[in-house]
Structure of Aspartate/glutamate/uridylate kinase domain-containing protein:
Amino acid sequence: MKRSRHQQTIVIKLGTSSIVDEKTHEPLLPILTLIVDTAFKLRKNGHRVVIVSSGAIGVGLQRMEVDKRPKHLAQLQALAAIGQCRLMSLWDSLFGHLSQPIAQILLTRNDIADRTRYLNAQNTVNTLLDMGVIPIVNENDTLAVSEIKFGDNDTLSAITAAMVHADLLFLMTDVDCLYDKNPRTNADAKPIEIVEDFSVLEADVSSAGSSLGTGGMSTKIIAAKLGTLAGVTTIITRSSNPGNILGIVRYLHTQKVSSSSSVSDSDDQRSQHGEPSL
Protein backbone atom coordinates (compact mmCIF):
# COMPACT_ATOMS: atom_id res chain seq x y z
CA MET A 1 0.00 0.00 0.00
CA LYS A 2 1.34 3.40 -1.00
CA ARG A 3 1.74 5.90 1.84
CA SER A 4 0.40 9.43 1.48
CA ARG A 5 2.92 12.20 1.84
CA HIS A 6 1.15 13.37 5.01
CA GLN A 7 1.08 9.92 6.60
CA GLN A 8 3.70 9.18 9.25
CA THR A 9 4.74 6.00 11.00
CA ILE A 10 4.80 6.59 14.75
CA VAL A 11 6.19 4.28 17.43
CA ILE A 12 5.05 4.85 21.03
CA LYS A 13 7.03 3.10 23.76
CA LEU A 14 5.54 2.57 27.23
CA GLY A 15 7.65 1.34 30.12
CA THR A 16 6.41 -0.78 33.00
CA SER A 17 6.15 2.26 35.29
CA SER A 18 3.69 3.80 32.81
CA ILE A 19 1.53 0.66 32.72
CA VAL A 20 1.62 -0.85 36.21
CA ASP A 21 1.55 0.76 39.66
CA GLU A 22 4.95 0.16 41.23
CA LYS A 23 3.49 -0.78 44.64
CA THR A 24 0.18 -2.50 43.94
CA HIS A 25 1.09 -3.84 40.46
CA GLU A 26 -2.41 -2.86 39.32
CA PRO A 27 -2.67 -1.68 35.69
CA LEU A 28 -2.78 2.12 35.41
CA LEU A 29 -6.06 2.22 33.52
CA PRO A 30 -6.37 6.03 33.29
CA ILE A 31 -2.99 6.29 31.52
CA LEU A 32 -3.65 3.27 29.32
CA THR A 33 -7.03 4.69 28.31
CA LEU A 34 -5.41 7.99 27.32
CA ILE A 35 -2.74 6.15 25.32
CA VAL A 36 -5.41 4.16 23.50
CA ASP A 37 -7.38 7.32 22.75
CA THR A 38 -4.24 9.05 21.43
CA ALA A 39 -3.21 6.09 19.26
CA PHE A 40 -6.74 5.83 17.87
CA LYS A 41 -6.80 9.53 16.97
CA LEU A 42 -3.45 9.19 15.23
CA ARG A 43 -4.86 6.29 13.21
CA LYS A 44 -7.94 8.33 12.31
CA ASN A 45 -5.64 11.11 11.12
CA GLY A 46 -4.09 8.65 8.67
CA HIS A 47 -0.92 7.76 10.56
CA ARG A 48 0.51 4.27 11.10
CA VAL A 49 0.97 3.49 14.80
CA VAL A 50 3.06 0.88 16.62
CA ILE A 51 3.03 0.51 20.40
CA VAL A 52 5.99 -1.04 22.22
CA SER A 53 4.54 -2.17 25.54
CA SER A 54 6.40 -3.38 28.61
CA GLY A 55 4.54 -4.59 31.68
CA ALA A 56 4.11 -8.35 31.25
CA ILE A 57 6.07 -9.25 34.37
CA GLY A 58 4.42 -6.47 36.38
CA VAL A 59 0.96 -7.66 35.39
CA GLY A 60 2.02 -11.23 36.16
CA LEU A 61 3.05 -10.17 39.66
CA GLN A 62 -0.41 -8.73 40.24
CA ARG A 63 -2.17 -11.81 38.88
CA MET A 64 -0.17 -14.18 41.09
CA GLU A 65 -0.23 -11.82 44.09
CA VAL A 66 3.57 -11.69 44.29
CA ASP A 67 4.93 -8.65 46.13
CA LYS A 68 8.42 -8.32 44.68
CA ARG A 69 10.01 -8.97 41.32
CA PRO A 70 11.90 -12.29 41.66
CA LYS A 71 15.55 -12.66 40.71
CA HIS A 72 15.51 -16.16 39.20
CA LEU A 73 15.12 -16.33 35.42
CA ALA A 74 12.60 -19.19 35.40
CA GLN A 75 10.30 -17.31 37.77
CA LEU A 76 10.55 -14.13 35.69
CA GLN A 77 9.77 -16.05 32.52
CA ALA A 78 6.78 -17.73 34.14
CA LEU A 79 5.41 -14.40 35.35
CA ALA A 80 5.97 -12.92 31.89
CA ALA A 81 3.94 -15.75 30.34
CA ILE A 82 1.10 -15.14 32.79
CA GLY A 83 1.24 -11.37 32.50
CA GLN A 84 1.53 -11.16 28.71
CA CYS A 85 -1.84 -12.86 28.26
CA ARG A 86 -3.55 -10.46 30.63
CA LEU A 87 -1.70 -7.46 29.23
CA MET A 88 -2.82 -8.17 25.67
CA SER A 89 -6.34 -8.88 26.88
CA LEU A 90 -6.33 -5.45 28.49
CA TRP A 91 -5.06 -3.72 25.35
CA ASP A 92 -7.59 -5.60 23.22
CA SER A 93 -10.44 -4.63 25.52
CA LEU A 94 -9.50 -0.94 25.52
CA PHE A 95 -8.98 -0.75 21.76
CA GLY A 96 -12.05 -2.94 21.20
CA HIS A 97 -14.29 -0.20 22.59
CA LEU A 98 -13.11 1.89 19.63
CA SER A 99 -13.34 -1.01 17.14
CA GLN A 100 -9.60 -0.70 16.56
CA PRO A 101 -7.90 -4.03 15.75
CA ILE A 102 -4.54 -4.79 17.33
CA ALA A 103 -1.94 -7.54 16.94
CA GLN A 104 0.70 -9.03 19.22
CA ILE A 105 4.34 -9.13 18.09
CA LEU A 106 6.86 -10.78 20.43
CA LEU A 107 10.55 -10.52 19.52
CA THR A 108 13.95 -11.62 20.78
CA ARG A 109 17.35 -10.37 19.72
CA ASN A 110 17.78 -13.48 17.57
CA ASP A 111 14.79 -12.36 15.50
CA ILE A 112 16.68 -9.17 14.68
CA ALA A 113 20.14 -10.72 14.27
CA ASP A 114 18.98 -13.33 11.74
CA ARG A 115 18.26 -11.58 8.44
CA THR A 116 15.55 -13.98 7.29
CA ARG A 117 13.67 -13.68 10.58
CA TYR A 118 14.19 -9.91 10.63
CA LEU A 119 12.73 -9.49 7.15
CA ASN A 120 9.83 -11.76 8.07
CA ALA A 121 9.09 -9.66 11.16
CA GLN A 122 9.43 -6.47 9.12
CA ASN A 123 7.05 -7.72 6.43
CA THR A 124 4.51 -8.86 9.01
CA VAL A 125 4.50 -5.56 10.89
CA ASN A 126 4.28 -3.52 7.68
CA THR A 127 1.41 -5.68 6.43
CA LEU A 128 -0.44 -5.13 9.71
CA LEU A 129 0.10 -1.38 9.41
CA ASP A 130 -1.18 -1.41 5.84
CA MET A 131 -4.29 -3.22 7.12
CA GLY A 132 -4.95 -0.45 9.64
CA VAL A 133 -3.96 -2.62 12.61
CA ILE A 134 -1.96 -1.30 15.57
CA PRO A 135 0.81 -3.82 16.34
CA ILE A 136 1.73 -4.09 20.01
CA VAL A 137 5.34 -5.18 20.37
CA ASN A 138 7.06 -6.63 23.42
CA GLU A 139 10.15 -8.68 24.06
CA ASN A 140 9.43 -12.40 24.24
CA ASP A 141 10.45 -12.59 27.88
CA THR A 142 9.12 -16.12 28.26
CA LEU A 143 11.70 -17.48 25.80
CA ALA A 144 14.52 -14.94 25.99
CA VAL A 145 17.55 -15.70 28.13
CA SER A 146 20.28 -13.20 28.93
CA GLU A 147 22.25 -14.03 25.78
CA ILE A 148 19.37 -13.15 23.44
CA LYS A 149 17.59 -10.38 25.38
CA PHE A 150 17.44 -6.79 24.20
CA GLY A 151 17.96 -5.80 27.82
CA ASP A 152 15.15 -3.25 27.92
CA ASN A 153 12.26 -2.12 25.78
CA ASP A 154 13.81 1.29 25.12
CA THR A 155 16.33 -0.49 22.91
CA LEU A 156 13.59 -2.67 21.43
CA SER A 157 11.53 0.41 20.57
CA ALA A 158 14.44 2.00 18.70
CA ILE A 159 15.06 -1.23 16.77
CA THR A 160 11.35 -1.49 15.98
CA ALA A 161 11.27 2.13 14.82
CA ALA A 162 14.20 1.47 12.50
CA MET A 163 12.61 -1.76 11.25
CA VAL A 164 9.40 -0.02 10.15
CA HIS A 165 11.21 3.13 8.93
CA ALA A 166 9.34 5.20 11.50
CA ASP A 167 9.22 8.97 11.32
CA LEU A 168 8.76 9.46 15.06
CA LEU A 169 9.61 7.50 18.21
CA PHE A 170 7.98 8.60 21.46
CA LEU A 171 9.62 7.34 24.66
CA MET A 172 6.96 7.75 27.34
CA THR A 173 8.28 8.14 30.87
CA ASP A 174 7.43 9.64 34.27
CA VAL A 175 9.14 12.98 33.59
CA ASP A 176 8.12 15.53 30.99
CA CYS A 177 11.42 15.66 29.11
CA LEU A 178 15.16 15.02 29.28
CA TYR A 179 16.98 16.98 32.01
CA ASP A 180 20.63 17.75 32.66
CA LYS A 181 20.15 16.32 36.18
CA ASN A 182 17.64 14.11 37.94
CA PRO A 183 14.69 16.49 38.52
CA ARG A 184 13.47 14.41 41.47
CA THR A 185 16.61 15.11 43.48
CA ASN A 186 17.85 18.36 41.92
CA ALA A 187 15.56 21.38 42.05
CA ASP A 188 17.84 23.24 39.64
CA ALA A 189 17.58 20.58 36.91
CA LYS A 190 17.18 22.17 33.50
CA PRO A 191 15.36 20.69 30.50
CA ILE A 192 17.37 19.72 27.45
CA GLU A 193 15.25 20.56 24.44
CA ILE A 194 17.46 19.39 21.57
CA VAL A 195 20.28 16.85 21.81
CA GLU A 196 23.26 17.39 19.57
CA ASP A 197 26.05 15.60 21.45
CA PHE A 198 25.07 12.23 22.90
CA SER A 199 28.48 11.63 24.48
CA VAL A 200 27.95 14.42 27.01
CA LEU A 201 24.60 12.98 28.08
CA GLU A 202 25.78 9.39 28.32
CA ALA A 203 28.35 10.36 30.93
CA ASP A 204 25.92 12.18 33.20
CA VAL A 205 22.59 10.39 33.55
CA SER A 206 21.17 7.87 35.95
CA SER A 207 20.76 4.30 34.78
CA ALA A 208 18.22 3.43 37.47
CA GLY A 209 14.75 2.35 36.40
CA SER A 210 11.71 1.45 38.47
CA SER A 211 11.64 -1.57 40.75
CA LEU A 212 9.50 -3.40 38.19
CA GLY A 213 11.21 -2.37 34.98
CA THR A 214 14.71 -2.63 33.53
CA GLY A 215 15.12 0.80 31.98
CA GLY A 216 16.14 4.27 33.13
CA MET A 217 17.06 7.54 31.50
CA SER A 218 20.39 6.16 30.27
CA THR A 219 18.60 3.47 28.26
CA LYS A 220 16.35 6.12 26.74
CA ILE A 221 19.39 8.10 25.61
CA ILE A 222 20.84 4.96 24.02
CA ALA A 223 17.48 4.36 22.31
CA ALA A 224 17.36 7.97 21.12
CA LYS A 225 20.86 7.61 19.72
CA LEU A 226 19.93 4.40 17.89
CA GLY A 227 16.77 5.99 16.58
CA THR A 228 18.58 9.11 15.40
CA LEU A 229 21.17 7.02 13.57
CA ALA A 230 18.26 5.37 11.75
CA GLY A 231 16.77 8.75 10.85
CA VAL A 232 13.96 8.61 13.42
CA THR A 233 13.03 11.77 15.34
CA THR A 234 12.99 10.69 18.99
CA ILE A 235 10.96 12.49 21.66
CA ILE A 236 10.94 11.93 25.42
CA THR A 237 7.67 13.00 27.03
CA ARG A 238 5.44 12.29 30.02
CA SER A 239 3.27 9.17 29.85
CA SER A 240 0.56 10.68 32.06
CA ASN A 241 -0.26 13.21 29.34
CA PRO A 242 -0.06 11.27 26.06
CA GLY A 243 -2.33 13.79 24.37
CA ASN A 244 0.85 15.84 23.92
CA ILE A 245 1.76 13.41 21.15
CA LEU A 246 -1.00 14.78 18.93
CA GLY A 247 0.26 18.35 19.29
CA ILE A 248 3.86 17.34 18.75
CA VAL A 249 3.01 15.40 15.59
CA ARG A 250 1.13 18.40 14.20
CA TYR A 251 3.89 20.81 15.14
CA LEU A 252 6.72 18.75 13.70
CA HIS A 253 4.77 18.26 10.50
CA THR A 254 4.14 21.97 10.03
CA GLN A 255 7.67 22.95 11.00
CA LYS A 256 9.25 20.22 8.87
CA VAL A 257 11.76 19.41 11.60
CA SER A 258 14.53 17.09 10.38
CA SER A 259 13.73 13.46 11.19
CA SER A 260 17.29 12.92 12.38
CA SER A 261 16.93 15.23 15.39
CA SER A 262 16.24 14.16 18.98
CA VAL A 263 13.91 16.52 20.78
CA SER A 264 12.23 16.76 24.17
CA ASP A 265 8.78 17.93 25.11
CA SER A 266 9.49 20.12 28.13
CA ASP A 267 6.50 22.45 28.01
CA ASP A 268 3.11 20.82 28.50
CA GLN A 269 1.22 24.03 27.81
CA ARG A 270 2.92 24.61 24.46
CA SER A 271 2.43 20.98 23.52
CA GLN A 272 -1.28 21.17 24.23
CA HIS A 273 -1.41 24.01 21.71
CA GLY A 274 0.50 21.95 19.19
CA GLU A 275 3.91 23.52 19.89
CA PRO A 276 6.46 21.38 21.75
CA SER A 277 9.63 22.98 23.03
CA LEU A 278 12.44 22.67 20.53
Summary: The beta strands are 9-14, 48-53, 102-107, 134-139, 168-173, 178-179, 191-192, 194-195, 233-238, 262-264. The chain has eleven helices and ten strands. The chain has one domain: 9-272.
